[in-house]
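Tokens as discussed.
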């Protein structure tokens, strides 16, 4: 009988796992991929929309175009997960699995930061797409880009937001009437890479962006237009661009699999405490930062294990925790940091200076995945 593999969430992790299983064992596994959304949006595309480089319609990749032999994509909301029975309930049905993979990403915990809503943040689709018009209206005063908690997706993204905001204000001829402040929870922008961090801090200084390290926004006081940091310090703002606190989606928390907000897994195998139940990507404590490249890396490792088992070779994949992140430095310059989280005693990161090749590489990062997952030519 075919293995029933049920994957919850068609993001970076879920789509890559589904694609690999379809490519390598299309007839031997019965794969179901469940997502509540009708389209996928790359995280970095949110910044592109915010800063007017493209439109929200152009960056939405409809799941109807994710067509893979052996994979059934179900558009539905997961409302219950019973990990002991590997049983999943959705809004309109239920599924039993031999192998259950939780790839539901990280959710935003607005309630954890009083005053914060989708109108104040740029991490959700609605939040990012809504910022675009607010940015157009912002011509003078103080902009605060503030992170409310860690871990958060794509650690470079708030720094990129500050640098791209600078460019946008320069382009509109209003930069000298505006201040930009960036609040990050870490002592430096990219903790595992001192070189990348130094390059970013230098870029902030060159652009007169105030960097507030080791701080988090605890409350947003709309009446006084003040962001209150957890330290009690206050930052007045005319434009607030926040990064909400993250945690696993409610349905995952209710399954009993989470500890400290996320699903603990064996970092090498990605298996949870329940046999046959795996968690990959942002939903898991998989030993890496929360980013698409690391969700994909976990998917590749798990795919190798599942394919080995199906073929009877027992080749086991190992999650290595390596990945490269592209970083927008503004002025159309893109750098890269190559991070290795699991090989050594502590994480390391190697920086590559911005260059035209890296711009082309980042474009390829997007186009190769649009082609691989959605069959798009560009
Ligand atoms: C501004 C910004 C910039 C970023 N830039 C980059 C970048 O340059 N490079 C990079 O690698 N990463 C980047 N990221 C991070 C990246 O987007 C995430 O880390 C990545 O998407 C995580 O992949 P995942 O598969 O774990 O989860 P996701 O891609 O979040 O997928 C989870 C899926 O689960 C679905 N889902 C959730 N709950 C339910 C439910 N109850 N029922 C059904 N479906 C559900 C969601 O609809 C979603 O499709 C960025 C993020 C942001 C916000």
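Sequence:
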């Amino acid at each position: 009988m075919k293995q029933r593999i049920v994957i919850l969430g068609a993001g970076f992790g879920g789509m890559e796992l589904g694609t690999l299983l379809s490519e390598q064992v299309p007839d031997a596994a019965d794969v179901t991929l469940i997502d509540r959304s009708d389209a996928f949006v790359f995280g970095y595309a949110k910044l592109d929309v915010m800063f007017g480089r493209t439109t929200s319609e152009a960056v939405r990749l409809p799941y109807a175009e994710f067509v893979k032999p052996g994979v059934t994509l179900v558009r539905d909301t997961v409302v219950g997960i019973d990990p002991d029975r590997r049983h999943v309930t959705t809004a309109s049905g239920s599924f039993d699995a031999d192998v259950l993979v939780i790839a539901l990403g990280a959710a935003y915990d607005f309630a954890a930061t009083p005053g914060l809503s989708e109108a104040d943040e740029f991490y959700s689709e609605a939040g990012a797409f809504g910022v675009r018009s607010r940015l157009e209206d912002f011509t003078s005063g103080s902009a605060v880009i503030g992170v409310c908690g860690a871990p958060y997706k794509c650690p470079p993204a708030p720094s990129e937001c500050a640098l791209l905001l600078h460019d946008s204000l320069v382009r509109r001829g209003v930069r000298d009437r505006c201040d930009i402040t960036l609040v990050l929870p870490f002592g430096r922008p990219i903790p595992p890479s001192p070189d990348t961090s130094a390059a970013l801090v230098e870029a902030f200084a060159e652009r007169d962006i105030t960097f507030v390290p080791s701080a988090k926004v605890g409350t947003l006081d709309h009446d006084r237009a003040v962001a209150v940091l957890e330290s009690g310090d206050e930052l007045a703002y005319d434009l607030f661009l926040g990064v909400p606190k993250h945690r696993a989606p409610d349905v995952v928390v209710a399954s009993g699999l989470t500890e400290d907000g996320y699903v603990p897994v064996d970092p090498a195998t990605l298996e949870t405490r329940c046999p046959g139940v795996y968690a990959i990507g942002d939903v898991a404590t998989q030993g890496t930062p929360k980013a698409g490249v690391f969700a994909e890396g976990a998917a590749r490792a798990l795919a190798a294990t599942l394919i080995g088992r199906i073929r009877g070779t027992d080749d086991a994949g190992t999650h290595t925790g390596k990945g490269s992140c592209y970083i927008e430095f503004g002025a159309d310059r893109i750098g890269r940091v190559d991070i290795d989280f699991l090989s050594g005693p502590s994480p390391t990161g190697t920086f590559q200076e911005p260059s035209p090749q890296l711009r082309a590489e980042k474009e390829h990062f997007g186009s190769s995945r649009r082609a691989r997952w959605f069959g798009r030519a560009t």
